[in-house]
Design brief:
The chain contains 22 helices and six strands. The protein has 480 residues and is mainly alpha-helical. The radius of gyration is 23 Å and the shape is globular.
Length: 480
Amino acid sequence: MTLVFAWLLAWAAGAAVYCVFDTRRGPGWRVSAAGHGLVFGMLLAGAMADLFAREDTDHALRHGWLPLAIVAIAAAAFAFWRRRASTAVVTAAPRLERWKIILLAAGILSVVYRGYLALREILLRPTFPWDAWDAWAVKSKTWFLLGHYVPFVSSTHWIDAAAGASFTGPAWSYPSALAWVQIWFASAAGGWIEPLVNLPWIALWVGMLLAHYGQWRAIGFSALRAAAFAYVLASLPLLTVHVALAGYADLWIATLFGFAVLAWIRWLVQRDVSQLALAAACVLVMPWLKLEGAVWMLLSVAVAIACEMPRRARHALIAALAILAAIVATVGHIKLPLFGLGWVSIGWHSIEVPVIGTLSIVFHAKALGGAFGSLFLQPSWNLLWWLVPVVIVWRWREFRANRALRCLGALLTVSFAFLAFLFLFTDAAQWAESYTAINRLVMHLVPAVITLLALLLRDLPLYQEPIRTAPSSAPRSSAA
């Protein structure tokens, strides 16, 4: 019962916080609130453990439940006030035909069965993959078994410190947000029971699917169409692997990046300022989950700002970047402060990141084969990467005509260009040649890619609903 209480409280708090950002009561809003609520609630629970249970990690739930309940009540009250003050009215959801209901039910049952298989894997084994126990769970398990927080530092500082004053490890510099999430649920479970500590990963997957469905409904997709693309997202093998082998942070980054893109699209299409704030909140959280989150945050903010600039301002920005490149060419290197990464030194032959180390810049031809094999030959992605270029070429006219699609395309182009540089021109090429990290980092962008495909295919004959640019006047109805 204690574990159930911890889950329900976190879920309620997360849903209430989401409703502060989204006051609509249109098709899919309950599904969207439930999905976002699962993810936001787990992160809020981890934040409460971090803030109030550092001196007594064994009883994180005891110390953090009241502050989390206060957050839930305050957010719910503010969301209710915002809803009462709002004058927006949304269209009613049309009734589905019987064949569509049957098809929808079959898809849902298939996804539920897939989730059951992943859940069974979580419950049958301890933390399994290397990065999961070495980079993420090592901190939470250490703090929970010690009963209090102890800092993780570099090996040099650990040698110089007093015995027991600190700990070290290969991933000592990685963010600790997910460790505190595990502390919350370990405390609720009454001990370090790894299958129960790893349950957030199945909840994360469910939340990702529900939130994407709800947000796609909010921008005008039919229930069947939104469910079809949620099924595509749910069926991708590597995402389910990251659920079953719980412990990695990559699925969290993929989920938050996907949430940010969905909210940003609603801002671009509907000019809903609350959705822009939601997108900003999602990208700001990412650096606290994984180091790569800082890169996605910086790229997302840069592209979003560029998309709002007048054409002349964008040209001036390009000119400034060209001048910066000229400075690097002349001086040989330049140092830039990047949030979450520190002072990054960029030169012709190397890039030095304080929390990662030095990456030599040289072209790795063998990495091309690894990248191609990872995306197009291995079964990790079904046929996704064969489909993406075909759909873009096929729907190029729609892509060029729609500003929201162009902005999303720009973000994904810049993001994939970064990955191409990382895996083809730096020491990270070894992760492409070995088919390891390349798949995990590509996964960060996959929910956003599915959103791009869904928008590109929005006007096929089966789907008649266009993207709404503003709420229309019609009676309220419950979510589909």
